[in-house]
Amino acid sequence: MVRGPEPAPVSPERFAALWCSLAPIGRAGSDGGYLRYTWSPADLAAREWFVEEALDRDLTVETDRNGNLTAWWGDPAAGDAVLTGSHLDSVPHGGGYDGALGVVSGLLAVDALRSDAGGVAPPRAIGVAVFVEEEGARFGVPCLGTRLLTGAVEPQTALALRDADGVSFAEAMAAAELDPTGVGPDPAALARLGAFVELHIEQGRALVDLAAPVGVAQGIWPHGRWRLEITGEANHAGTTRLVDRRDPMVTCAHLVLGANQQARERGAQATVGRLAVTPNATNAVPAGVTAWLDARAADEPALRALVDAVAAQTLEQAGRDGTGVEFTEESLSPAVVFDPGLRERLRELLDAPVLATAAGHDAGVLAAHVPTAMLFVRNPTGVSHSPAEHASDVDCALGVEALARTLRDLAWR
Ligand code: GLV
Ligand code: MN
Ligand code: MN
Hints:
2 domains
């Protein structure tokens, strides 16, 4: 038997109206991409937008010890609460939908349920969360808010992480008027949760190929980030003979090509998307290159084998180049299989296809602690982490409807 209020239909115009109130915040530069780094003025403005929207709806806003925000409809202390939401931070020049779509959809799904609920809160509270530093774009470690909440990262490790300007997580949090001394796991907050469902834009083209607006996630590939400090000798670009050079950029070039080749051969993914070059001069052999490797594979042994092969190749090349390489693991996210019972329930409820993904999400971290599911909304180009990321208002409205039906199913079960 279906219980709970009948969610009101959500029009594309209704979606667009709320979407357009958030969209300008943190949109930077002429490419239309976003710069919403954690605790930056743009991120704080987006968080403020969320708090105002939540208070306008008479939701109760809670900021946890790690800075994660949740807007509650009903009292989560009653237990078995149903949480949705996502994140508002972005990668550098990222798209607007990654993260934000899940937050906007959560608020609109609550609206859709409330309009028929006659002011009566659900038997299990529904919360819409905004998690901190999901992308790891500022401090390097993704899903930091949920890692801290669940104890997957040590508080001292997180607080000491530094951004590209040398500002620590602790300093940035304090500057955002939040107390960094309290960060850490919160088992009591987690114990209140009966389910977490994150809605997210799809970051590939699977739903396009399946001609479906909404999908249900199967699981997440294991993935991680490694930092390579490659050191050489700064010297003159014109007068230093090639045989006399110790050029870290040459070693780095082999890293990039080697990672690509190894990933291709193994059906995995490897990317070097970020470099810092010292001193970064056109007419000087660099003294050093810092490179970040992002690697992902279908299972953990495959991921480890990929990274080991790339490391071995790079070290071998460094031997030829006379350079040094130091390899540091910055983060590792294990394989995730979402709760099979919840996944099946949503697949049937929504008549939606099931997809695997190689993208990381807070849902992946929470899945180890709470029955968790994800919904994906079709992305016509499949492009993500780029200003070209897009979903139509029509599909986004269908996503909200799917989320509202999901929340009803869970909260009035
Ligand atoms: C997060 O978006 C990731 O997969 O890197
Ligand atoms: Mn992302
Ligand atoms: Mn995301």
